[in-house]
Write a sequence for this structure.
């Protein structure tokens, strides 16, 4: 069929010699591409020993370049290792127990393993490239022979297929990114996340040591297989503080299962919940928050717009709970400043009046007057209160967090049910969590259930700065999958400074554009949590 199409195209362009030459060249190029892709698809596969394992390597067409390691039965690790339409697949076919045991028990392997792994991988890649080129030439020649039925053109087609492999290989080599191994994307079983992804501190302190990271990855895999039927033990780094960021549970019981599992697997030191633990803020929903006491670690909470003051008081009664509302607390060495959401709007069918975003931004700016980054000098005046050296600010709505820009290194928020992170011009990082509760019942309103999301944050114990974080995504109701993506903070020690040279408004100021918290709660055109109790709300959105 392809042969008939090419001949028909040649007949239509047979009116002039240049047209005929162009048609032939185009036909040869098309046949070369087809033959080359077929050759790589069916022939670019090799098995090679890498350290204690036998690794299957293969090349496959892909819209974006990446390397995927299949670690059965735990899941896959993906790396943005290069550009170009080629995907390198690595599959662990077998692990030799005697070699793995020697790696784990013999300290001399620690020095030899990086060099050994690098040599094995390079040898395997060379064999893979040679095999890909040979099969591309063979399939290119066969394709040219079938299409053109002439040896000369078949030879040109084979040469074109070889050139295509050379170009793709060259692009992949030139765009190779060794840093990608520090930021893997894991998809698979939850229990395999910490051991496969590795420790954040080791990745940060040895960020440029590609060979060492590759060896660590192989060692982690060896530990998993050597453990057999038992789960591997994740050894916490003594110099790292682990924080689990959750948000918008919306009384979904599955959220507690995810939180407990992540707490245990990642050995987190405490949890930060940025609000909407409830759905309508009623007393009946207070039973849901009693799970906080069973977690066994500090649970820092700020109120969301679906949480009433009744909800906040119920959380405060729980063991290990720390409720922040315009206040700060130091937990495991980190100072967290929290701002409860001033609104209470569980009914989305009633829209609040007024410019809500401006009001929320001003609330953040007012609270910014209380804060200063840890590296800033404290006020020398004894008549003025010292600024709070907050390491983290916890808010519900990210709009409030933007008002804190330049006065705290990290702002955690939620509310929008979509995960994102942004490094603001001031140096403050704004992290927005999705919904750890899968948006509650709203998560079932779409074609696919909303996934449950959370993040594990890694802080340096001495500098109190964020060094890395893992974004965890769990399939929604009825789905059974998990993805973990590692991110490295590129400049943990960056300077934090306000975006505007003007100082933030005083906490007692009442002028236009910078209202005090008291003015916000009494004069804004939105219903506030201080105006309602027991989950009741004013339907007009105004003060009664």
């Amino acid at each position: 069929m392809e042969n008939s199409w090419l001949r028909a195209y040649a007949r239509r362009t047979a009116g002039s010699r240049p047209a005929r030459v162009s048609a032939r060249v185009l036909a040869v190029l098309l046949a070369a591409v087809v033959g080359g892709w077929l050759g790589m698809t069916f022939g670019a596969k090799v098995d090679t020993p890498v350290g204690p394992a036998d690794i299957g390597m293969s090349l496959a067409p892909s819209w974006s370049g990446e390397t995927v390691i299949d670690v059965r039965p735990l899941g896959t690790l993906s790396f943005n290792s290069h550009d170009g339409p080629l995907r390198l697949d690595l599959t662990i076919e077998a692990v030799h127990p005697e070699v793995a045991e020697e790696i784990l028990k013999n300290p001399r392997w620690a020095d030899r393993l990086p060099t050994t792994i690098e040599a094995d991988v390079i040898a395997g890649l060379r064999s893979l490239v040679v095999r890909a080129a040979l099969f591309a030439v063979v399939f290119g020649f066969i394709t040219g022979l079938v299409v053109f039925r002439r040896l000369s053109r078949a030879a040109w087609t084979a040469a074109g297929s070889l050139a295509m492999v050379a170009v793709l290989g060259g692009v992949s080599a030139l765009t190779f990114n060794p840093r990608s191994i520090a930021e893997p994307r894991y998809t698979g079983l939850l229990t395999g996340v910490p051991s496969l992804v590795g420790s954040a501190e080791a990745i940060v302190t040895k960020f440029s040591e590609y060979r060492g990271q590759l060896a660590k990855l192989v060692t982690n895999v060896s530990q998993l297989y050597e453990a057999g039927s038992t789960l591997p033990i994740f050894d916490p780094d003594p110099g790292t503080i682990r924080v689990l960021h959750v948000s918008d549970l919306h009384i979904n019981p599955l959220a507690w299962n995810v939180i407990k599992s992540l707490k245990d697997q990642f050995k987190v030191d405490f949890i930060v919940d940025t609000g909407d633990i409830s759905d309508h803020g009623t007393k009946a929903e207070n039973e849901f928050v009693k799970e906080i006491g069973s977690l066994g670690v500090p649970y820092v909470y700020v109120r969301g717009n679906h949480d009433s003051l009744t909800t906040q008081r119920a959380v405060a009664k729980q063991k290990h709970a720390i409720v922040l509302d315009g206040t700060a607390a130091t937990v495991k060495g980190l100072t967290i400043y929290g701002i409860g959401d001033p609104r209470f709007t569980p009914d989305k069918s009633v829209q609040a009046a007024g410019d809500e975003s401006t009001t929320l931004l001003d609330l953040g700016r007012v609270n910014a007057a209380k804060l200063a980054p840890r590296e800033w000098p404290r006020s020398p005046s004894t008549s003025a209160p010292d600024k709070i050296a907050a390491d983290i600010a916890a808010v519900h709505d990210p709009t409030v967090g933007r008002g804190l820009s330049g006065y705290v290194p990290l702002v955690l928020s939620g509310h929008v049910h979509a995960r994102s992170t942004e490094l603001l011009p001031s140096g403050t990082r704004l992290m927005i969590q999705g919904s750890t509760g899968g948006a509650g019942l709203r998560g079932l309103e779409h074609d696919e259930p909303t996934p449950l999301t959370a993040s594990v944050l890694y802080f340096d114990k001495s500098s109190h700065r964020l060094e890395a974080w893992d974004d965890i995504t769990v399939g929604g109701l009825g789905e059974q999958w998990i993805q973990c993506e590692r991110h490295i903070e590129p400049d943990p020690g960056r300077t934090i400074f306000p975006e505007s040279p003007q100082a933030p408004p005083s906490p007692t100021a009442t002028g236009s554009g910078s209202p005090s918290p008291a003015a916000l709660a009494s004069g804004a055109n939105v219903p506030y949590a201080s105006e309602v109790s027991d989950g009741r709300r004013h339907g007009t959105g105004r003060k009664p």
The CA atoms of residues 4 and 524 lie 74 Å apart. The radius of gyration is 29 Å. Confidence is low (pLDDT under 50) at residues 203-215, 224-236, 506-544. The longest strand covers residues 86-95.
